[in-house]
Amino acid sequence: MRVLVKGAGVAGLTVAHEVGARGAEVAVFDPNPGFLAAASWLAGGMLAPWCERESADEAVLRQGQDAPDRWEAILPGEVRRNGTLVLAPARDQGELKRFAGRTTGYDWLDEQQIAILEPSLAGRFRQGLFFPREADLNPRRALTALHSKLTARGAIFGETSPNEQDFDHIVDCTGAARIGETGSLRGVRGEMLYLRSDEISLDRPVRLLHPRIPVYIVPRGDGLFMVGATMIETEFQGPVTARSLMELLNAAYALHPAFADAAVVETGAGIRPAFPDNFPRVERRGKLVSLNGLYRHGFLLAPAMAAKVADIVFNTGIAGGLTP
Ligand SMILES: Cc1cc2nc3c(=O)[nH]c(=O)nc-3n(C[C@H](O)[C@H](O)[C@H](O)COP(=O)(O)OP(=O)(O)OC[C@H]3O[C@@H](n4cnc5c(N)ncnc54)[C@H](O)[C@@H]3O)c2cc1C
Question: How many Å separate Cα 226 from the centre of its chain?
Fold first, then answer.
């Protein structure tokens, strides 16, 4: 069986991996090489379904819980299983209680326990929530490694569209490019930045709650930190705005004042593709299958959704959203 995957973001690559693993001959077409047009390149890479449950439906938790195992099977050694730490500035302690009321799977930590977990934050926060079962991966390393693995397995990558007649199935994973073409798909802009600081060291993603702009900081090693992300209901693709930059930097500074001296090494903005219910969907029309709407859960849910796509391609599954 020959399968053409359109789009080489996290959706396309996990689909290519899954259908390839089940025996299909795979070609991947993306006119924008190097992941530069992919929202996936800008992601935090958090596999954090318990934290996401704060604003997401129970199905996201149910389908996302085994994401670290699924990624470990795809890319052994790429998953960091250090949990997530959730904190709030002293004036926003109410936010911590509110977050705890909307989530499960956490332990309350006091100041001393926070210091044991993250020595750089010693003495800065009186209380926190720790979600020990959560994990993360570095999206850029994961995408690059997945591309290499697929190439080594014989998948063909191209920047010009091959003849679709040559394929038994075409799987559209073009994300935000389908906005305006796929009914109710919309874009939710996410802005982020990378900071470099040798004065702070963190071992896991840290979320800092705020009534308006909750922010997270994901350590990438070697003094590099990803700070994200805004959630703006727009498909505007332009550079990060001054307002967003200030808010992200303020949050980093609130987590640790040493971030004031960090170097801003990169800023970026990506469009998360989302359906009205913020659930991803697999849809089928003849030999065309599409996976889209991964919203803020691309890394969390793509492996599970890729398995659904493969079930359809191999005729063992039905199209649909996240819920069975
Ligand atoms: C700042 C930010 C932080 C995020 N953090 C997280 C996180 O921590 N955890 C998490 O799970 N998710 C996170 N997300 C969400 C996640 O990044 C998205 O859900 C995911 O990237 C969507 O993947 P995708 O493959 O559908 O789209 P994309 O990654 O956008 O890939 C689509 C690809 O299709 C290609 N394409 C476009 N048109 C065509 C065409 N006509 N033919 C062929 N190819 C085409 C594009 O070039 C692109 O490479 C974050 C998103 C943002 C923006």
Answer: 12
